[in-house]
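User: My advisor asked me to double-check a structure prediction for DUF4391 domain-containing protein before group meeting. I don't want to rely on an old file, so could you generate it fresh from this sequence?
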Amino acid sequence: MLGLPKATEMSKQLPKKAIYAKFQMNTAAKEKIDADISRITIVNEIAPNKVNIPAGDEVKNFFVLLVSLKRKEFDEKTIATLSKLIPQNILFVLECGSESKLAIYHTKIMQTDWKPTEEQRIELQGLNLDKVWENVVVAVGSVDIEQGNTLDEQIEVNEKRQKLEKEIAKFEKQARAEKQPKKKFELAGKVKKLKRELDMLSSPSKAMVAAMIGNETTETEAQSVNTVKAISILPEYAADIFDGLKTIEWRSWKTDYRGDLLICASSRKLKGCISGYALCMVELFDVVPFTRKHLNSALMDSVPEPAGYAWLLKNVRLIKPFPYKGKLHLYDVDASLVEVLSPIHTKEADIEFEQYYKQLYIEAGAEF
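Assistant: Sure, here is a fresh prediction for DUF4391 domain-containing protein from the sequence you gave:
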């Protein structure tokens, strides 16, 4: 099984009744196991005398258990319970019909996807069984160990990352649905704080921009010291950039310009959104070909045809908003008109929002 050496093979059934008796399990615990599992068999033992790999400091051997399931929709807690009850390192082959998945408990249950049992394979890689076991955990859990982390540290980081991503998705959804600008602004602040925490979990190598800009025709713009670059965006999208919810702007064209970019809400009227005003200042720090990975940050559902470009934005700052009639593409605005205030989602920005933006939102039909 699993393509493991024949010398490791064995066939020893573990009667469920023996497990119940040895660990004095109560009726409820027995019923949970019985509901999911029909049979448990030890099918392989990985040990130094069987695979010619020396024992490690922690792992002297480990076993492969074939668990015959009654249903694919099993309770993960059942496997976790077995792992905790049996004081051995165990790789589970969870089989249902002709398909199976591999599972392992290492601080938590980790599993592969279902596939035909005869296609399941695991490789024994490592100078000793400590390293072999770690590599098995990495393979089953699809763990990408980042530089400087141990396996346990990486699993903990991944769990924190998943939790943050769920919280970010929840607050982003709430913020996008929120009609009241002040509450929307506050929810966006929570999103920004969580994204900052998420960034801190990422390794420096992951944070590098991998996408490369090709050799397509480029619109080149130079900026005068007396002007700032500006772009006009539909009011609802300008508001999302202002709130920090939208960090990528899709454009069919690209530019060589990098630096401060004034976001102007176009003059199209939309209830609850400021229109016809310069709204905030951002930093345009890169422009790359638009792909599916940019959809969420661009607040888009699908990649346009042609795909166009992702304008990557950061460092959103409030300004004293002023009426401005926008133009197509990038354009210059007299720098003397622009008074940059505080970064969004700071205490100062909350005060400035009340002072400079609230009345404009009320005039646009927003509720407070």
